[in-house]
Write a structure and sequence with these properties.
Number of helices: 9
Helix content: 55-70%
Largest sheet: 4 strands, mixed
Shape: globular
Number of strands: 4
Length: 210
Amino acid sequence: MIRYYTDDCSYRLPQKRRTAAWLRAAAESEGYTLGDVNYIFCSARRLLEMNRQYLGHDYFTDVITFDYSDRKGSRVVSGDVFIDVETVADNARQYGATRLQEMRRVVVHGLLHLCGQRDKAPRANRQMHSKEDKYLKSVGVRTMKSLPMVKALVPFAAGIVLAEYFAVPWWLFAAAFLLCGALALLWRSWAAAVGLLVAAGIRPMRFISV
């Protein structure tokens, strides 16, 4: 059974029943039965205290999972998942996602930990992100990876504007190009990088001749 609580915050998760059914299906897809899983939504201050007390880490984090699962015997997953709603909101802004999209990613992230998925080593971290994307798509959340044209729009448009309307020195164009490239990397988008290259190649000789 999924239960939701708050600690030092007033956050309310939308669509709780739908989320519970989604998590139950995700656990079954991983080969487990969903037991008692408690989601506790916290303030940044509260989760920082827990991170210091239980893990010895003096920094903010979006989620801490306490695992009580019996994966080898009854194959029932259970535990407490504490989520910092403030850090989740900050990460949503950073990654260009909505708050609900990022919250669902963290919610299923906690469940995947209960199912035994690790994320410390590079390979395990890639597996974790791949599974997150898989289950987010199953609940109807389009991840940033599934919106390549939207992600490419800003750097593509910036390159077009520079190429068509401004007679700028090559060094200024290069600086703007690098800025757009930084945005592409920030949004983790190969499509944005490709769009940037296409935009920059519209009239390259124009800037060389300035």
